[in-house]
Amino acid sequence: MPQKTQSTDTRKKRTVLIVDDHPIVRQGLTQLINQESDLLVCGQAEDAHDAIAAIRQFHPDMVIVDISLKDTSGVELIKDLKVQFPELPVLTLSMHDEAVYGERALRAGARGYIMKQEATEKVVTAIRRVLAGEVYVSDGMAAKMVSKLVGGVSKKPASPIESLSDRELEVFRMIGEGFNTREMAEKLHLSVKTIETYRAHIKDKLALQDASELLRSAIQWVNSELQR
Prior knowledge:
Elements: E1 3-4, E2 14-19, H1 23-34, E3 39-45, H2 48-58, E4 62-65, H3 74-84, E5 90-94, H4 98-108, E6 112-115, H5 120-131, H6 139-151, H7 166-176, H8 181-188, H9 192-205, H10 211-226
Parallel strand pairs: 2-3, 2-4, 4-5, 5-6
Antiparallel strand pairs: 1-3
Helix pairs in contact: 3-4, 7-9, 7-10, 8-9
């Protein structure tokens, strides 16, 4: 259920909705943002369903979305928000590597991507940039995007993981987190056959021989993400 953040003074403040499935993260972000004289967290949501409801209820000036949510990926939520609320700016704040998820989030419709490991002042800067109608990314990601623009898009991705589609990457991550095929189908609201098709595509793109190699590779990747 969407949660409203209480405040005694909302004058001249830009409002922010936080979508993250970790209560501690939501609380920390709320404290950080509410310290600013011109910013206010108007509400919180832990999944995509509550996020949509909260946007309709609170009418925020912007939304902060985590990549990993309970009921879907943040990338899929961003795509939905782009369709339903095309003028609503979205900032992605995530623990996941921007090299893998950054461009995906921007292509989905986000106006910025920042990793949770960044200093708090950078988070506030990112929020202000997005509210001002600008795009916020790290210097490293900006350099990578400019390099692609100047030199043309490389036919071969820097990492095999980058060759996966958004949904394939989501399935790959869930494999590494221990979900079986039926559990993934239920969570993603897809058929078992569709999940099996995604698994086959992933094995082909990553040159993996069988299900055991797929599982081992997915676990290693998820663990490497957690160690960042």
